[in-house]
Amino acid sequence: MTIKKINEQEWAQGVYEKICAKMLATAERNRHKIPYTAENGVFDDQAVTNPCWWTNGFWGGILWQLYHATGNELYREMAEEVEDKLDLCLMEHRGMDHDSGFRWLPTSVVNYRLTGNEKSYNRARLAADNMAGRYNPAGRFIRAWNDWGDGQKTGWAIIDCLMNLPLLYWAWEQIEDPRYLRIATDHADTAMKYFIRPDGSAKHIVEFDPGTGEYVCSHGGQGYGHGSSWTRGQAWALYGFTLSYIHTKNPEYLACAKRVANYFLVNTPDCALVPVDFRQPSDCALEDSTAAAIAACGLLEIAKCVEGREQEIYHNAAVTLLYTLDTERCDWDESRDSIVQKCTAAFHDAKHEFPIIYGDYYFIEAIWKLTGHEIFIW
Ligand code: GLY
Fold first, then answer.
1. How does DSSP classify residue 52?
2. Residue segments in the chain with a per-residue pLDDT below the cut of 50
3. Whose CA is nearest to atom 2 of ligand 1?
């Protein structure tokens, strides 16, 4: 990837203002929804179609970031409505999986941090306890998904789970019960050992024997195939190990995050637009902008943990990814919902390159990091 030289402060402030203007119009049009995607510039509503979907916390996260930056009560009221709607998942065991971090950190935990809301504390503790209950002590990993009638996933762990661990770090920090810390760090250690290849690339899914904990095999998952390198998985690993370092100060996690980051940067094309898989066929141009936005957040956090030239490299790489999204992949038309375009959920899905809510969330989080408006959610 070629690093672009830009006037960072002026550019980031301009993007911040564009986000504020577009999101105010978007929020006013979508007061009671929980969006996942937009069709023809109109947000869908997962609260109606899929109330326990793993992405249903990101809209709340966007609203809290906007509330923190602007103080506009509209955002707080809307974020609290999202949080209320997630309650039914806490009462539905099939609605609960390892993605509790993605759902309750950007909603209940951030609400509790900002307002001290006891109801939010209660929800986040319930979600953390449920997540801790997915721990497999034989394999020292957190079980990812439930079974969907397409085979047993009892022994499956996935790279994305690193981003959910901060819910356990939060619970540990709240009540100083070391069990939460132990489960989170066991999972992170297992991920370092079995998911990260020597070149810094990450496997998406690793299957363990759920009884003995032994490694069985890996699966290509949402990437191109077995042995490939799904870019969003790389981004989850990059940011996820950085977060484990931030919470524990274990230098092995930072070293691992840097290894994954270096692989990400070396494999990102010069144009700084990120493919769906770094090993997809060379005649395939499919992109996933979410991987760029998530990686940018992680790179900005790594940059804060290192010094000198290294700091400059990670920071400027993040800015290049974000500048490229802003100038080439963002829709700034205020009459249309969603900002970041060309996002892809999975390589082998029928549909590619569409707006996805976490593309917007991580893009906003990254710009907030650059402009000093962020409330740290993870
Ligand atoms: N955590 C699922 C995904 O990244 O698509």
1. T
2. none
3. 160
- 160 CA to centre of ligand 1 in angstroms: 6
Q: In the chain, what percentage of residues exceed pLDDT 70? A: 100
Does ligand 1 have an atom closer than 6 angstroms to the CB of 232? yes
Instruction: Report how far ligand 1's centroid is from the alpha carbon of 73 (Å).
Output: 31
Distances (CA, A) of 187 to 162, 163, 165, 202, 260: 8, 11, 8, 15, 17
Nearest-angstrom CA–CA distance, 189 and 167: 17
Sign of CA dihedral 265, 356, 187, 117: positive
**Counting atoms of ligand 1 from 1, which one is nearest the CA of 222?**
5
Q: Residue-wise over 80-112: b if at least 16 C-beta within 10 A, else e?
A: bbbbebbeebbeeeebbbbbbbbbbbbbbbbbb
236 known member of a binding site: yes
Q: For residue range 285-326, list pLDDT tens digits in order.
A: 999 999 999 999 999 999 999 999 999 999 999 999 999 999
Interhelix angle for 8-29 vs 357-371, to 10°?
140
- Residue 110 near residue 61, CB atoms below 8 Å: yes
Q: For the full predicted model, state whether its pTM sits above 0.85.
A: yes
CB 107 within 8 A of CB 61: yes
> For 332-347, what is each residue's pLDDT tens digit?
999 999 999 999 999 9
Is 99 one of the catalytic residues?
Answer: yes
Q: Do 364 and 19 contact (CB within 8 A), yes or no?
A: yes
Query: What's residue 149's pLDDT?
Result: 75
Q: What atom in ligand 1 is closest to the CA of residue 160?
A: 1
Q: How far is the CA of 81 from the centre of ligand 1 (A)?
A: 24
160 has binding-site annotation: yes
Question: In this structure, what token pair is assigned to residue 339?
Answer: 């900002």
CA distances (Å), origin 199, targets 123, 202, 263, 368: 40, 9, 7, 31
Q: Does ligand 1 come within 6 angstroms of the Cβ of 345?
A: yes
Q: Distance between CA atoms of 245 and 253, rounded to whole angstroms?
A: 5
Pocket mutation for ligand 1, best pick of 50, 52, 98, 160 (most atoms within 8 Å of C-beta): 160
Report the nearest atom of ligand 1 relative to the CA of 99. Answer: 1
> 160 an active-site residue?
yes
